[in-house]
Amino acid sequence: MIKRRLRFGAFLIAVSVIMLGVARLLSHEKMYRMTSGEYIKWVDFDVTAEAMNDALNISLDAYKKGYDADFVKLLSYLGAKYGGDFRHYKKKDLTDIYDKIKNGEKLDTIGAKYNYYPYYLEAYGAVLSEYVGEFYIDGKQYYGLRAFSPIAKGYYYNHSDDFGASRSYGYNRKHLGHDLMGSVGTPVIAIESGYVEALGWNQYGGWRIGIRSFDNKRYYYYAHLRKDHPYVSDLKEGDMVNAGQVIGYLGMTGYSAKENVNNIKTPHLHFGIQLIFDPSQKDGYNQIWIDCYELTKFLSQNRMGVVVSTDGKDRVAEKDVIIYDMPD
Ligand SMILES: [Zn+2]
Known about the structure:
Elements: H1 2-35, H2 49-65, H3 71-82, H4 91-102, H5 107-111, H6 117-128, E1 132-137, E2 140-145, E3 166-167, E4 173-174, E5 178-181, E6 187-189, E7 194-202, E8 206-212, E9 218-223, E10 240-241, E11 246-249, E12 268-275, E13 288-289, H7 293-299, E14 306-308, E15 315-317
Antiparallel strand pairs: 1-2, 3-4, 5-12, 6-11, 7-8, 7-10, 8-9, 9-12, 12-13, 14-15
Bound molecules: zinc ion (ZN).
């Protein structure tokens, strides 16, 4: 009897596994239809900090030794292999690929055996393509991670995976970003370079800054900035900001139609990353916002230190990071 029940249990498990597999294939199929001949309509960014770290280390080693093991391509290969589900991640999958590359195989050729490799290349590339590369500090050239944690070095914060949680203020909304709890006045750092596209009061975000990456594919939204002194002096729409630059200060403004009001209970930085493959996705119902929790963990290894500005009114980055592949 017990044996039979066990057998039935095993049968149920097998059926569930098959059904999960079918579901995954269907979601692949959906993504494929969404991408064929048109721009990408949706991205689940579930790459873990661990996988990003391992891919970063391999890409840095490859850069030194002259192999072609690009950071985004490595992760896109994994994305295609796992169907985007990084709970399957094993470091060995990366080191195996790196061994093949060292033996003369091309990452694109290895990836090509997966139908969805091009999708992941474009989807993950839209998130990460500018994060690793060359940069200069005081005229000296470096290669590595050139995107930053949004929280300055030496300042405390805590966070949890809060993407998609529901929000009560205003209409019923999902949380399309990530909250970093810290103290009021903590300098907020630009994760990536770009142009200030929006700056000012928004009834949800309070004092907020929107920065668009130079390739136009990412829109960074930093919200609930400090009452009275939300931004570094003179920052305005249209300005160019550098990755690692101080842009403003953590606060608790927002949830108010009236300007400069602290109506957020816990001081925190809300930041979000929106992906834009087509201009129609910037506003309205087709927006793509990604889960930034694992990305934030990954970026926590690169936190910018700050010093007091010469006029004493602001905090500024202790060093300027210059990235040359900027637009004219
Ligand atoms: Zn938030």
